[in-house]
């Protein structure tokens, strides 16, 4: 399957939330990475058929989604930032309700619910009220509802916000496991969410497509731009004024700085970049 975004623009009054955005996806996990307010959610809502673009179009295997109607929505699974659970429902009842909304045959829905609760690790919680579930459990339930119709396009908008590190790891493994035969689009501003599972990372800033590459490719582009130096306290203000410091560690022998710079900084040593460096390089305005 091929999902194409062609010159997508979305305006709200005089504000351009997404600007002439084009990109093509096939099966696998794609990480949509950008700061808050960069247009990620607007773009995801357009892909989820919740919002219409001001201009541009979305194609599935060459067919405009606007011409597909219900056929396009049948391909979709969507986990928005705020899903809005009925707190007194149980996971079982909630998924049955979603199955009815998606017009899934009752017998098929029951079998699918059993399978999904097992996949997301909620079989033992299927009879508990949702208001008693942890944040991580609610997010896993959100994944289950998005997968209920066995979608070929799975859209996840900031899915790990509020999760602890253990739940983040579990979530990433789950997404990786289910991505083999579907397009998974995961929007986030948290680099660790996509560092190890994304087939390709798409950078978006102020509604504009910046670039896309594999994690390895993005890191290679920053070779020779990340520097380390240990300084004394008296020198810190000068470095903060003149360089983009992305990390600072106070040690017994001084303050170790991690610096982003296009040119070599005197008395520093070059170090290997990481994805946080990539984020800061493209989304923080100041790079020397």
From TrEMBL:
UniProt superkingdom: Bacteria
Keyword Transmembrane helix in annotation: no
A single MF term (Gene Ontology): ATP hydrolysis activity
Keywords: ATP-binding, Nucleotide-binding, Transport
Annotated ABC transporter domain residues: 3-231
Record keyword Transport present: yes
UniProt xrefs under InterPro entries: AAA+_ATPase, ABC_transporter-like_ATP-bd, ABC_transporter-like_CS, P-loop_NTPase
Entries under Pfam families matching the protein: ABC_tran
Similarity comment text for this entry: Belongs to the ABC transporter superfamily.
Protein name: ABC transporter ATP-binding protein
Source species: Gottschalkia purinilytica (Clostridium purinilyticum)
